[in-house]
Amino acid sequence: MSPLLCARCGIELKPGKGNFYVVRIEALADPTPPKFSEEDMNLDPRAEFERLLKQMYELSEQELLNQVYRRLVVYLCGPCYRQWIEEPVK
Ligand SMILES: [Zn+2]
Q1: I need a surface site. Which of 44, 69, 72, 89 has the fewest CB within 10 A?
Q2: How far is the CA of 61 from the centre of ligand 1 (A)?
Q3: pTM of whole model > 0.70?
Q4: Residue 21 domain boundaries
């Protein structure tokens, strides 16, 4: 089994010692339905549909999913966790 490492500093974490944190991150794209502007309405709907479809074919299913939903688990050592939790979006 490969050792568990802190995602920030890389120190080895020892399960069972109570010296690290498991951080679960769930990210969801804006779930609000899009609003269409007048400009959007004036686009040729078929051309726009084909453009979107082409864009989708170029991305894998996983890539499409990653654009709307990501879930990650990060392990942090005690010191890294205490820094991170104060400013998680920095
Ligand atoms: Zn660390």
Answers
A1: 89
A2: 33
A3: no
A4: 4-86
Q: How far is ligand 1, taken at its centre, from the CA of residue 45, in Å? A: 51
Domains: count for the chain: 1
Q: d(Cα 21, Cα 82) in Å, to the nearest integer? A: 10
5-64 residue pLDDT tens: 999 999 999 999 889 999 999 999 988 888 888 888 888 888 888 988 888 888 888 888
**In angstroms, what is the span from residue 67 Cα to ligand 1's centroid?**
28
State the distance from the centre of ligand 1 to the C-alpha of 15, rounded, in angstroms.
14
Closest CA to 75 of 17, 38, 36, 22: 22
Distance 21 CA to ligand 1 centre (A): 10
